[in-house]
Specification:
- The termini are far apart.
- Helix content is 16%, strand content 59%.
- 23% of the residues are buried.
- The strands form four sheets. Strands 11, 13, 14, 16, 17 and 18 form a six-stranded mixed beta sheet that branches.
- By secondary structure, the protein is α+β, with helices and mostly antiparallel strands.
Length: 315
Amino acid sequence: MRAPRIFIAALLIPVALAGLILFDLMGAVGAARSLKVESVQLESLDIDLGWRLRLGIPPVEPYVRAVNMRLSMALSNPTSHELRVRDLAYEIRLNGRPVASGSLEDVRVPPGRSKLVLPVSINPEEAISVVLDALISAMQRGDNNLDFRYEVNGSARIPIKVLGVEIPGFEVRMPFRRDGIYRFSFSIPSLAQTGHLRAEEGVIVERYGWFVGNSEVFSVRPGAIVNAAVLIRARGSLEGELVLEIRRDISFLPDTVATRRAFRVSLRDGEETVLSVEFTAEGGGLMRGYFMRLYYNGAVVWEMGDSYPPRLWVG
């Protein structure tokens, strides 16, 4: 009688062990599937924004040097023990266009709610293009607020443990997609690079620059065709004649007039306009470069500083 009992016991032990393994496996799969991504939040969108003068309306246009973002994820683990995420990968879109991606490995998620800061690798060209398009569109609407639609798509892989041991090839994949709106506000700053000399005359120089084609320059070769431009703002009522004068800076000799252009203006307080004059750069001899001088009704109200830049070097 003992032999059949031993046989039955030997048969029941692996069956019981298999049942225990199956029970533990089902529990591990259920625990892995219970992990939830509650939210993905774009906490900050840092835009290194600048402005440059342009010949036209509006008289300034934005440019973007860099874009950075901070992203976080809220997770919920309803179990009573820590869950391990083998890896987490995701893509970030702004206004429907992919601008960044990221990944994490070996993430430990404690019981309850927790928060992760997600590393982000920016595609600088695409991110700058998206932001610049949105800025220009907002300026055309006369709006200083940008609502960026962001979307984060990704997946996590959670390994399965049976009797405390991870089983290679056994894992639960958890795809996720979260979106939201991030509002970015901007304003066109005062970009004065030097003080105006006589504010009582009502002329405030906000910005100036040298341009060859569509590019702002600080030095040119002799023979280059250059546009000198100044953005001014009226302080109070501004009525009369403005003259933008381009002067040669010559070593050891007095400076001389290269060209000048007169403008009749009638501006109310706060109104802006662009003055520009085109000339051909000369070089050779003691010639160093050029600078600008501005007259209002015959009096000098502003002159460019002595350094290079902002003066235009020719060489």
